[in-house]
Amino acid sequence: MNTSKASIYNVPNALTSVRFILAIAVMVLVPMGHFITALIVFSIAASTDWIDGYWARKYGQVTKLGRIFDPFVDKIIICGTFIALVEVGESGVLSWMATIVVGRELLVTSLRGMIEGSGGDFSASQLGKWKMVLQCAAVIAILFALIFPDVGWLKLMGQILLWAAILLTLYSGFDYTLAAARVMSDQPAESEKDQ
């Protein structure tokens, strides 16, 4: 898709910028204990992820900035919220869990940049998308449990989703690493065929 003619001053990039501000707001609200507001802001930021991409494709407003900025904001929303939840002891989110979430995103971003920079294709997989869904569900469940601390099943649900999200995050990172290894091992063979 041609991204050279579209202006960076468009609706999709404006929406992404708003989502970025919302992500920062969540990181401020959670440690302050404003869990209800954090839940609302996080839900808006996470659930509107598809709007900017849909708008950009539908109206031909895809830009290079948007292709970089949108996934960056997605990572800030998730990674930042997990890091913020570490500060809340009752959340059950431990520092090593947040490290796994951040580390996986850094790994996949590095692999994608390396492969696509050399002309390969490293698009997001369905597993990666489900990982994002499960992470968002875990955050929402944890925030609900923090809002209603006396409801035992909410806390249990939050912890189940949290551990499921961490396990899927690990598996997704491993799966992407294997996929990257396959792509990189195929590239020399393809270049030799062209000679």
Distance between the termini: 28 Å
- SSE sequence, one letter per element: HHHHHHH
Question: Which fold name is given in CATH as the topology?
Answer: Four Helix Bundle (Hemerythrin (Met), subunit A)
Question: Architecture, CATH level 2?
Answer: Up-down Bundle
Helix percent reads over 70%
Mean pLDDT: 85
The largest β sheet comes out as: none
Tally of alpha and pi helices: 7
CATH superfamily placement: CDP-alcohol phosphotransferase transmembrane (TM) domain
- Shape type: globular
The CATH C-level class name:
Mainly Alpha
For the record, the count of structural domains works out to 1
Structure summary, number of beta strands: 0
Question: Mind telling me the C-alpha Rg?
Answer: 19 Å
Specify the structural class: mainly alpha
Which spans have pLDDT < 50 for at least 5 consecutive residues? Answer: 189-195
Strand content: under 5%
Description:
With 195 residues, the chain is mainly α. It has one domain (11-184): CDP-alcohol phosphotransferase transmembrane (TM) domain (Four Helix Bundle (Hemerythrin (Met), subunit A), Up-down Bundle), CATH 1.20.120.1760. 80% of the residues lie in helices and 0% in strands. The protein contains 7 helices and no strands. It has helices at residues 11-32, 35-47, 49-58, 64-86, 95-117, 126-147, 152-194. The longest helix has 43 residues, at 152-194. The two termini are 28 Å apart.
